[in-house]
């Protein structure tokens, strides 16, 4: 793969060391998932004479930036170093000076960036500033991986809503509970632990009011060592039926709780929930008088959320699939069968033709004792007859 140098000429292919150092930067970027919104999560590795002299990743809340952290750790050793960065260094003044200027001022001789930042405030300007300062710039190394790490940030920029991942713990025949509603536990402890890790890697976790009423969940992260990474809890609650005495509302002052309702919801109920520390966000209703999920996702994007994990129930999942608003699947499959009377993972959604079926491409398969997790991302078929399936 080639890249751009200081003068825009084609550069030689990236070396094995380049690939390895960018891999380390991508791993660092992953540490910020769920903690940096509305900013992207970025990793930066500074290497001089083959030795890593500084590392950094975007800190909680989005500041300081990865480059600032890496430069701080490197100190004078940054002069003459190569910076491996998973996203183009910023070029605009915000709460901190531009990272492009900081890298140039520190004497970094080369910057290898995985991905150009599509934010209109940056969009190539950071790379241009580095080139103008005499820094060699190479772009595009492991770009697909960098785009996956920041898929939430990119989705919010392009679509105005967070990346939506639907999580289900289901039997082999796609059931998430018995007819009576019993669901604890369909999957085993290893699968449940990984489910909590997914929560820690998202900005927010959402359920419908049906799940909130049936399960009285906390929707927090209970993995040892990352309890402080519980995301924003979101409930789609058209008529504000969420109980004031439930665990979600009782914990609203310690872990953020956002309740999305329709514009017609009872203002008295709204005031009561807000009095307990919840945040109520009214949005437009669909034709059935329920929260319009597309409007709800736009509202969440406007608030800065980039990654949303939806854990149920079946009606919410079906509605999101019907709106073509599911970007990722996290499907935990248990080797069990419940049969027709079991509650489906996806309800209220169906297609008449296989050609209309939403398609997902597996990203990863993980064996979790008797259970299996399949992580997949949405793909779409070319509109032409016989067209191939393409990644979104």
What does this structure look like?
- With 392 residues, the chain is of the alpha/beta class.
- It is 27% helix and 24% strand.
- It has twelve helices and 17 strands.
- Helix 3 (99-105) runs parallel beside helix 4.
- The protein is globular.
- The model is unreliable at 1-12 and 383-392 (pLDDT under 50).
Tags for this entry?
ten-stranded mixed β-sheet; disordered N terminus; 392 residues; 17 strands; globular; 12 helices; alpha/beta; disordered C terminus; 24% strand
Name the helix and strand elements from N-terminus to C-terminus, one letter apiece: HEEHEHEHEHHEEHEHEHEHEHEHEEEEE
- Beta fraction of the residues? 15-25%
Secondary-structure class? alpha/beta
Strand count, sense and closure of the main sheet?
Answer: 10 strands, mixed
Mean pLDDT: 90
Q: Determine the oligomeric state from the structure.
A: single chain
- Tally of strands: 17
Report how far apart the termini are: 23 Å
Radius of gyration: 23 Å
Structural shape:
globular
Q: What is the number of helices?
A: 12
Low-confidence stretches: 1-12, 383-392
Relative helix content:
25-40%
Indicate the topology.
Layout: H1 16-30, E1 43-48, E2 51-57, H2 66-74, E3 82-85, H3 99-105, E4 110-113, H4 125-132, E5 136-139, H5 143-149, H6 151-159, E6 163-171, E7 175-177, H7 189-200, E8 204-208, H8 209-215, E9 232-236, H9 247-250, E10 257-262, H10 267-275, E11 279-283, H11 293-302, E12 307-310, H12 314-322, E13 328-334, E14 343-344, E15 359-368, E16 371-381, E17 389-391
Parallel strand pairs: 3-4, 4-5, 6-12, 6-13, 8-9, 8-12, 9-10, 10-11
Antiparallel strand pairs: 1-2, 1-3, 7-14, 13-16, 15-16, 16-17
Helix pairs in contact: 3-4
């Amino acid at each position: 793969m080639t890249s751009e140098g200081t003068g825009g000429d084609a550069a030689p292919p990236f070396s094995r060391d380049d690939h390895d150092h960018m891999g380390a930067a991508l791993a660092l970027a992953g540490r910020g998932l769920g903690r940096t919104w509305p900013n992207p999560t970025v990793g930066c590795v500074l290497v001089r004479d083959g030795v890593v002299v500084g590392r950094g990743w975007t800190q909680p809340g989005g500041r300081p930036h990865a480059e600032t952290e890496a430069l701080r750790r490197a100190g004078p050793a940054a002069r003459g170093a190569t910076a491996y960065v998973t996203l183009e260094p910023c070029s605009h003044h915000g709460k901190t000076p531009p990272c492009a200027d900081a890298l140039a001022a520190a004497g970094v001789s080369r910057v290898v960036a995985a991905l150009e930042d599509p934010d209109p405030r940056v969009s190539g300007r950071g790379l241009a500033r580095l080139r103008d300062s005499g820094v060699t710039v190479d772009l595009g190394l492991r770009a697909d991986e960098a785009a996956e790490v920041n898929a939430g940030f990119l989705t919010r920029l392009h679509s105005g809503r967070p990346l939506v991942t639907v999580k289900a713990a289901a039997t082999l025949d796609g059931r998430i509970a018995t007819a009576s509603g019993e669901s604890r536990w369909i999957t085993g402890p290893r699968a449940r632990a990984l489910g909590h890790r997914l929560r820690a890697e998202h900005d927010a976790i959402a359920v419908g009011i049906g799940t909130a009423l049936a399960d009285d969940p906390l929707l927090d992260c209970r993995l040892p060592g990352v309890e402080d990474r519980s995301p924003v809890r979101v409930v789609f609650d058209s008529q504000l039926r969420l109980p004031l005495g439930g665990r979600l509302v009782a914990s609203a002052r310690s872990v953020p709780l956002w309740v999305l309702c329709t514009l017609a919801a009872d203002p008295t109920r709204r005031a009561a929930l807000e009095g307990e520390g919840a945040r109520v966000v009214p949005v437009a209703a669909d034709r059935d008088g329920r929260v319009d999920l597309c409007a709800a996702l736009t509202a969440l994007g406007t608030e800065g959320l980039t990654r949303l994990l939806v854990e149920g129930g079946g009606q919410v999942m079906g509605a999101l699939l019907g709106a073509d608003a599911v970007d990722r699947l996290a499907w935990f499959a248990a080797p069990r069968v419940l049969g027709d009377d079991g509650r489906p993972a996806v309800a209220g959604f169906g297609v008449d033709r296989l050609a209309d079926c939403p398609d997902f491409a597996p990203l990863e398969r993980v064996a979790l004792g008797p259970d299996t997790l399949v992580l997949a991302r949405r793909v779409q078929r070319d509109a032409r007859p016989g067209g191939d399936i393409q990644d979104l």
